[in-house]
Specification:
This protein is an alpha+beta fold. The protein has two domains: 93 residues, no CATH class; 113 residues, no CATH class. 16% of the residues lie in helices and 44% in strands. It contains three helices and twelve strands; from the N terminus they run ααββββββββββββα. The strands form two sheets. The chain has a six-stranded antiparallel beta sheet with strand order 3-2-1-4-5-6, with no helix packed on it. The longest helix is centred in the first third of the chain and has 15 residues. The radius of gyration is 25 Å and the shape is extended. The two termini are 48 Å apart.
Length: 216
């Protein structure tokens, strides 16, 4: 009888957390979004309503395998684009205020930023500021892995899609680009980027990243 009681309690516990636990898991990273669309996944239907995901269990009798990983019918708005979805297809309507990449700069040894069509590491020796130094990467559980990092700094600028010719409004991101001499962490990371804070020199950013970032 005790065994039956335990099994029954376990069953009740599982029953209690079905839809509510599923709802919490589906919306663990919820953020408000203008959206209304019905999505067909490989296992179920879900409705996305203002960024909240609701599983449509009563539609299960009409479930079928999607032509790809997912099909959707409806619309959503994201990062300056209004998107209409119908099955496998989608149509994007880009708003005039959508951020669009404008130009890139790289930092030179005197601290100036010069515009470049940045092709990454292929242009490494065009006179830009570059440094190579030892780097102790955090790889979890307080352990470190020593490697060599080659670093340069870049600046990316975005402007409104329909008004690129205007200097404002604009969005600017300064960061360092890092390449390691050997793979770091379990995932074998060979390169990454890290944002430069206001008033911070690139080498200071690198040392802050050395203290903060953990490579899994």
């Amino acid at each position: 009888m005790m065994w039956l009681s335990v099994e029954r309690d376990s069953f009740v516990t599982r029953k209690r957390k079905t839809w509510w636990r599923q709802f919490l898991e589906d919306n663990a990273r919820w953020r408000p979004q203008l959206s209304l669309k019905l999505c067909l996944f490989e296992e179920h239907y879900s409705l996305c309503f203002f960024g909240i995901w609701l599983r449509m269990g009563f539609l299960q009798r009409w479930h079928r395998d999607p032509h790809s990983m997912m099909e959707a019918w409806g619309f959503y708005y994201n990062e300056g684009a209004f998107v209409v979805e119908y099955g496998e297809d989608s149509k994007f309507f880009h708003m005039p205020w959508q951020w669009s990449f404008c130009k890139s700069h790289v930092m030179f040894p005197d601290g100036s930023w010069l515009e470049r069509e940045d092709r990454g590491w292929s242009d490494l020796y065009d006179g830009r500021w570059v440094i190579t130094c030892e780097y102790d990467a955090l790889v979890g559980q307080g352990q470190t892995q020593r490697t060599t990092a080659t670093v340069y700094a870049d600046k990316m600028e975005w402007r409104w899609r329909a008004f690129k010719w205007l200097p404002y409004p604009s969005k600017v991101r300064r960061s360092i680009d890092i390449r390691f001499s050997s793979p770091v962490g379990d995932r074998g990371t060979t390169g990454c980027g890290y944002g430069i804070r206001s008033g911070e020199l690139p080498i200071m950013t690198l040392r802050r990243m050395e203290r903060e970032r953990i490579f899994d």
